[in-house]
Amino acid sequence: MKYLRSALKWIGCILNFAKGSAFVVVVGLGLLSLLASTSLPWQLPYKPFIVTSGSMRPTISEGSVVFVDRRTSDVKAGDIVTFFRPDNVRENVTHRIVSIDAKEDKIFYKTKGDANDSEDAWAVRREALWGKVVFHIPWLGFLMSFTKTRPGVLLIVVLPLTVIAIDELRIIFQEISKIRKKKAKKDNPSNTSVIALLLLISYGFFATTMGTTMSGFTDTTSATDQEVVTSCWVAPSAVSQLLPPDNANTNTTDISFSWSSTTSSCPIATLTYNVRVYTDVGLTTLYGESGYGVGLSGTFTSVPEGEYWWEVRAKDQYANVSSSGSRHLIVDRTSSLASLSVTGSGYKVVEEKISNGDFESGDLSGWGTFGSVNVLSSDAVLTPVTSVLPYEGSSMVRVGDTTDSGSGNFVWENRLMQSVSTGAKSLSLYYNFFTRDDAPFDDPGFFIRLNGQNIFTKRSGDVAGIFGDARSTGWNQFTYNLSLVTDSMTNLAFYAGNTGDKDNQSWVYLDKITTYYVTARGTADYDLIGTDSLSGVAYCEYKEGAGGTWTTFASAFQIPTSGSHDLSYRCVDNAGNVGAISLVKVITDIDAPEVITDFSVVSSTYNTATLQWTAPGNDGAGSTTRSASYDVRYSLTDITDDASFDAAMSVENVPAPKPVGETETLEIIGLNPSTTYYFAVKAKDEAPNTSLLSNVSSVTTLVGSPINPGDIIINELMWSGSSITENDEWIELKNMTDRTLDITGLSITRLAGGADVSMIPVSSFVGKTIAPYGYFLLSHFVNTSSKIKDTVIPNIVDSGVNLSDTELEIKLYSGAILIDTAWDGTAPTEGISDTINGKYYSMERTGVPGDGANPLNWYTCIDSASTTDYFDGGTDERGTPGAKNRSENEPLAHQFILNRDIVQYSTDSATISAVYIRLSNESIQTESTQSASQSATKAVITPRVEISRSTDGKSLSFTIIDVSSYVFLSYELTYDSSIGTQGVVGKSVLHGDSQFVKNDILLGTCSTGGICAYHADVKNLAIHVTLVDSNGDVIKIQGSESP
Amino acid sequence: MKRILFALAALSIAVGTGFATTRAVWTDTVTVASNQVVTGTTDLQVSTDNAVTWSTTSMSSAFNLIGIIPGPVSPGTYAFSLKNLSSSPLNFTLGGRITPATVIAGSPDKTKLLIQIYDIDTPADATAWKTLAEWEAASAGGIIFNSTLNNGVTKRYGIKVQLDGTADNTWQGKTVTFSIEAMGTQI
Fold first, then answer.
1. Looking at the partner chain, which of A85, A169, A226 has a beta carbon nearest the beta carbon of B11?
2. A547 — alpha (psi -120 to 50), left (phi > 0) or beta?
């Protein structure tokens, strides 16, 4: 028991010490707890929070205890406050206020931890504030937090309580012991224990319930800057097109399109634009597009003519596309065509006088050709022109080749020819000259001739552009005043091709070749009509004279002043293309020609009557200008007045009037024998004003056979045979009358051994007829056995048809009357029989038949198309059996007159002369080179030409010597006479003879009736000859009359 | 006797208080955990370059989904990696939320943009589809990832987005920039 009491005493001492220490701790903590307690009946103004994170470092470190003044009524930026975390009210946050915002009468605080780089994501409402931090105690929070751990609770709460409990047990044991000893001892230590217990309980309660405050990054991590970008799915707004405006017309080659920028409802849209051009209104056929780009314009270059529709598309980077809608655009660089018409009483409109001048027949009928001449509906040409279309209608003709180099004919080897009537009118044609050559070559590359004289030329140097490109003048009109030509007929010829070399071609397209005149009374109305296939005609305008002022055509106008007027007119299209100026000679005439009073029949035959009268003045008595035309009529009854005159038969193809006072002679053919005819004439001017009726003259034709000379001619002979046999020969007759002729009684003889022998007897013609102006074919073989095409049916098949190659002379008889003769008994020089090269060409009668015994009235058929038109192909036969001759307009048979003294275009005349000389010189130089080259390989045989004139001065001959090496020649013969320069051209195939002879070239002109007028003062005879050998090499020589 | 009564009272208070206090500490783990001074004890690290570099706080991402249109779900795209490197062997349940997103040009309806975060290597472990508004409004614990992140483990996460088919044209061309805050809660 002693030991027990001693132990308890020691334990009591130890417990007192521990109890004292616990007391100190517990009192401190308890006071702190009481200070901050919210569980007590009273509340102190300061609330402590343990700081759990370092977001407020260095101001407040984690582990601190902050004390918040709960009485805070007002805070400001910079204050440190504790508040409920807005996104998680279970947490408290202590951060510094950085700004204060007021929204809808509520106050929000933006806060930020001092250690944080950015503001907090939230905004703190005033109601969420605990209050302002007034002070803090570092490290205390760790103790408080430690208290919350098991070790902390054992050390700080349980251990003191245990000490106190043990101590109290010790006291209880002591008191019991004292009671047992009845020893009362006044001691009151338990009072301190109770106080300490209460304080400790307060601390424990406080420590375990005290809030914490933190900042938000403590155990979180963030992946920042995640980006989600939405696309655009709404198309941009439609683009507004700027230029060109809708339905615009333009004549430019490069076309620029522009538009305004547009917008997208998508804020990130980056817009690009694409202009698309279509050739259809439905926008399905794309011509081209610019491709997408940011620009607001796009240019298309070298846009062909045509009709287009265009749109602009806008696209964002997500391929959302909008369209502007379409606009219409016409690209038109072709000028309008203008035509002039005249209405009202007393007028003559444009008069077509050239057969097939517009080539609308689709062939070359009516024309003579040589070389490369083709009728085309369009023609493809290389860079930069893609195609050529006719000027008007659906056909045109091309003279020359388009091949780009190394081939093609020389300019004189491509010809298009036709004899046309002249008179008080103009020649009009449209040409489109092309060249790939460059100056000084192809000079000229194209020229027009009347009767062998140049009236117009074009050369390569006239067309600007790049050498080698197909460059064009475009369609242009050429006019020429035919009243300046004194002869009633003239040969119109077009030439195009190479000059100087064959490296690069020149050629020409021709269309709408006409002769015309416009004459009218002063009251006539003139109308202008324009046509334009693309943009349409904007307006037409006209003026008189070259220097006048253009007047816009609004309605019909008149030209009341008597006399000649040069009227120019043109049209402008809506694309701004100004059309070529058309020039027309307009004659306003108010006076009728003088009446003819000396009209008479001066002679007659079985079927002809020759009329004669004096050419009247054009504008009444005393007028010195010649009339425009004659209206000659005849009747079987007397002509007594205008009515019976109008009822009489009109004579066609009356030659144009001669100058006033000259004697007019006209032979009427095709009359019936033993018949009385009454003749009368009226003269007309261009208006036409018509003269009064002339006196009437009558005649009774002679008694004759049913068929008389001139009624039928021998029109064509195939004396060469064909590739089948030399006997495949034929004869063609032609009815020259407008009557169906019964040819019973005809017979044909031939010259054999110097004497006429029967070839086709009378019996062969029994019951045969020839239609008016029709043809009659006599063949050695039937068509199926002959080379003649099977579709050509001979009228007579007779093996007696046998034509000599050495003494050719055929005579046609009607009974005993010699109707016609063909050739002169010599070897024929027209027509070709070339058995080596397989060429069998007929000889054709000229269009004006003349005397058939004169070789000048025959010509070789050179029409290449006839080979397939009239023969079973395969070999080169040429001729027109049973059909119209195709070489009858060849000028060889005529020596036409061009009065150079009255050529209107004196400048052109000078140019023509210069061109002519240069042409010859260049050719000679070129051929000299070739000749030198040839001399190295073959004997030096230089052809030469000799000219001689007949003793009576009415004809001449020339001989080209040493031509055995050549297969073809052509020549141009010129000379001066008292009425100007004259010309004759010709050509021939050579057959290996050493020389070529051409005799009896008339130095004059012969009329239809065979009456010839010879030129006076013939001098300066010159001849230019072109020779071609079998290799196609060319040599040119020239000669002149020996002194 | 009076003194004995005082001592008994003190003793009963001490024993009762100690019992009550320790019981509270050992049973309310949520409270204890939330009151931890955590710096240096847990370490949830993030990487946005496919686990090449790591950050304990945040790392900028190259995640960029473009061309989003209403309707289709975007292809899943890697966004970030998480790694649990706590100093003590702690395992995490993972949640996440999107801090208020920045939307360039305009204020489209955030309920139309749906976002899903998923474990690239275990695609089934994906969050529910939540709208941007829901992601932003998520509480501190965030929208729970289906997977856990044990101590020492690294996982890679991708994002899928879908613009709702009813999204109007105001959503065109919007750039939504946001941060994903991943939260690890000790388990």
1. A169
2. alpha
Contact A483, A422 (CB under 8 A): yes
Instruction: Report if pTM > 0.90.
Output: no
Contact (CB, 8 A) for A724 and A788: no
Distance CA A808, CA A41 (A): 163
B36-75: pLDDT as tens digits? 233 335 678 888 888 888 888 888 888 888 888 999 998 8
B chain contacts of residue A197, beta-carbon cutoff 8 Å: 10, 13-14, 17
Nearest CA in chain A to B137: A87
A302, A538 contact by CB (below 8 A): no
Which of these, A770, A766, A750, lies nearest to A758 by C-alpha position? A750
With contacts defined as CB-CB under 8 Å, which chain B residues touch A172?
A: 4, 7-8, 11
Determine whether the interchain pair A142/B37 forms a contact, defined as Cβ–Cβ distance below 8 Å: yes
ipTM greater than 0.85: no
Q: Are A194 and A24 in contact (CB under 8 A)?
A: no
Question: Which token pair is A767?
Answer: 């019951």
Question: Of B14, B35, B59, which has the smallest distance from its Cβ to A52's Cβ?
Answer: B35
Find all residues with CB under 8 Å of A41, minimum gap 6, and list them.
none
Q: Does B99 contact chain A (CB < 8 Å)?
A: yes
Q: Which residue of B has its CA nearest to A204?
A: B21
Which residue among B68, B79, B173 sits closest to A266, beta carbon to beta carbon?
B173
Residue A87 with chain B: CB contacts under 8 Å: 139-140
No. of helices (H) and no. of strands (E), chain A: 8, 70
Task: Count Cα neighbours of A293 within 13 Å in the Cβ-side half-sphere.
Answer: 12
Q: Report DSSP letters for A643-682, one per residue.
A: HHHHHSEEPSSPPPPPSTTPEEEEEE-SPPTT-EEEEEEE
Which residues 101-130 of A have a C-beta within 8 angstroms of B? 121
Give pLDDT tens digits for A72-109. Answer: 777 888 888 888 776 665 567 888 898 888 766 677 88
Contacts of B58 in chain A (CB under 8 A): 221-224
**Which residues, other chains included, contact A902 with Cβ-Cβ below 8 Å and sequence gap of 6+?**
A484, A486
Shortest distance, CA B153 to any CA of chain A (angstroms):
15
Write the DSSP string, A420-458. EE-SSSEEEEEEEEEES--TTSSSSSEEEEETTEEEEEE
Q: Which residues of A493-525 are buried (b: 16+ CB within 10 A; e: fewer)?
A: bbbbbbbbebbbbbbbbbbbbbbbbbbbbeebb
Asked whether the beta carbons of A503 and A468 are under 8 A apart, the reply is no
DSSP state at residue A901? G
